[in-house]
């Protein structure tokens, strides 16, 4: 079988007598294309893109139910290659692509058993990403045990191994805070809304820290609104950008409820904390200075996110360590002397003496 299901409660007293396996709908071949004359006129049906199009079209016509999709090799980076309408096992049917990252892809799928839309994270088939996915599953299951209501972090529904890809099934949420800002022409959120979002983020982070977990990758992309619904309100403070685009209204979330996602980089308190973590714009100074990090690195990231929600722009827009530290000093004043004394410049390519000098 191409699918390895993970069962938490194995049957210990199974009837092991040999018997003929019943024919499952998963094994049923696709319906004959002769029933659809003219669907693919002047096209030769075979393996490749044309066959993929046929599967997609049959899906949209409601014909292909539990047909196993054709085997396709992964792309050069180990990403799973799919077509809209494909099945991920007999239970999940691919509806659309929601996003892509270093880890793999996130697909919107229809859960035919629960009759609901879900988000499935398909991890790249490389071993290091498979191992990271198993760690993430462990963290997600721990979070779910301590938060049965699922009010703080995204809820894991299921997971399975499909064609050498770890697939993690999540509840489907709304857009990320970054996507909402981007689609709203990067217009800032009202301060009352930012205050509410900030309170929820701090509660989520406190919940993780109580479990001795450090997220290490908090950013607007990893904070999702629970609902995609929004309202339009008049925008009275026009910026040059909004005026140029003719945006005289701004969108606001109908509900401010949020949840954290992406626990692939989450670490426990007792693990090694010497390597570089966090996305650049939300990286704490102790991480850049190579001092090691702990719970405060999450708090620094939350502060950067709140400023971005208030202004519509990232606070530290840089891709270089020295410039990043200089921008921090411009906003917050000189770095504490005790940090500079202990600093071992792992990423900064200058000496401590040159950095602390008064030369401009």
How does this structure look, described?
- With 360 residues, the protein is an alpha+beta fold.
- The chain folds into 2 domains: 19-171, Phosphorylase Kinase, domain 1 (2-Layer Sandwich), CATH 3.30.200; 177-356, Transferase(Phosphotransferase), domain 1 (Orthogonal Bundle).
- The chain has 10 helices and 13 strands.
- It has a 7-stranded antiparallel β-sheet with strand order 1-6-7-5-4-3-2, with helices on one face. A two-stranded antiparallel ribbon has the order 8-13. Strands 9-12 form a two-stranded antiparallel ribbon.
- α4 runs antiparallel to α7 (296-311).
- Residues 92-360 form the Protein kinase domain.
- This is Protein kinase domain-containing protein.
- InterPro entries: CLK_kinases (IPR051175), Kinase-like_dom_sf (IPR011009), Prot_kinase_dom (IPR000719), Ser/Thr_kinase_AS (IPR008271).
Brief write-up:
InterPro entries: CLK_kinases (IPR051175), Kinase-like_dom_sf (IPR011009), Prot_kinase_dom (IPR000719), Ser/Thr_kinase_AS (IPR008271). This protein has 360 residues and is an alpha+beta fold.
What is the CATH architecture annotation of the largest domain? Orthogonal Bundle
CATH secondary-structure class of the largest domain: Mainly Alpha
Number of strands: 13
Write out the CATH superfamily name of the largest domain. Answer: Transferase(Phosphotransferase) domain 1
The amount of helix comes to 25-40%
The overall number of domains is 2
From the 3D structure, determine the CATH topology of the largest domain. Answer: Transferase(Phosphotransferase), domain 1
The shape is globular
Enumerate the spans where pLDDT stays under 50 for 5 or more consecutive residues.
7-64, 345-353
Mean pLDDT: 81
Amino- and carboxy-terminal Cα gap: 66 Å
SS content category: alpha+beta
From the alpha carbons, calculate the radius of gyration and give it in angstroms.
25 Å
- The share of residues in extended strands comes to 15-25%
Keywords: ATP-binding, Kinase, Nucleotide-binding, Serine/threonine-protein kinase, Transferase
Pfam family, one: Pkinase
Domain Protein kinase: 92-360
Protein name: Protein kinase domain-containing protein
């Amino acid at each position: 079988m191409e699918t390895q299901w993970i069962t938490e409660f194995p049957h210990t007293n199974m009837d092991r007598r040999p018997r003929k396996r019943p024919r499952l709908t998963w094994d049923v071949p696709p319906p004959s294309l002769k029933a659809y004359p003219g669907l693919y006129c002047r096209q030769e049906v075979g393996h490749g893109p044309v066959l993929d199009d046929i599967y997609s079209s049959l899906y949209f016509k409601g014909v292909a139910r539990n047909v196993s999709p054709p085997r396709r090799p992964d792309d050069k980076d180990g990403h799973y290659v799919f077509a809209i309408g494909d099945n991920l096992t007999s239970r999940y049917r691919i509806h659309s692509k929601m996003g892509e990252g270093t880890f793999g892809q996130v697909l919107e799928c229809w859960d035919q058993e629960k009759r609901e839309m879900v988000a499935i994270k398909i991890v790249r088939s490389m071993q290091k990403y498979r191992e990271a996915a198993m760690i993430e599953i462990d963290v997600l299951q721990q979070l779910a045990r301590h938060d049965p209501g699922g009010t703080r972090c995204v809820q894991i529904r299921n997971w399975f191994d499909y064609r050498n890809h770890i697939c993690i099934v999540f509840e489907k949420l709304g857009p990320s805070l970054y996507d909402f800002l981007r689609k709203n022409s990067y217009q800032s959120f009202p301060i009352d809304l930012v205050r509410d979002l900030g309170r929820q983020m701090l509660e989520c982070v406190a919940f993780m820290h109580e479990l001795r977990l450090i997220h290490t990758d908090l950013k607007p992309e990893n904070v999702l609104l629970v609902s995609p619904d929004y309202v339009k309100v008049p925008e009275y403070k026009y910026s040059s950008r909004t005026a140029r685009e003719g945006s005289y209204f701004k969108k606001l979330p109908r509900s401010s409820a949020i949840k954290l996602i992406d626990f692939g980089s989450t670490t426990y308190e007792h693990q090694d904390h010497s390597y570089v973590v966090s996305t650049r714009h939300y990286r704490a100074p102790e991480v850049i200075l190579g001092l090691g990090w702990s719970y405060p690195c999450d708090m620094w990231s939350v502060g950067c996110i709140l400023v971005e929600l208030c202004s519509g722009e990232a606070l530290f827009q840089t891709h270089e360590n020295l410039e990043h530290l200089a921008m921090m000093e411009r906003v917050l004043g000189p770095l504490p002397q005790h940090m500079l004394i202990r600093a071992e410049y792992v990423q900064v390519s200058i000496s401590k003496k040159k950095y602390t000098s008064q030369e401009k």
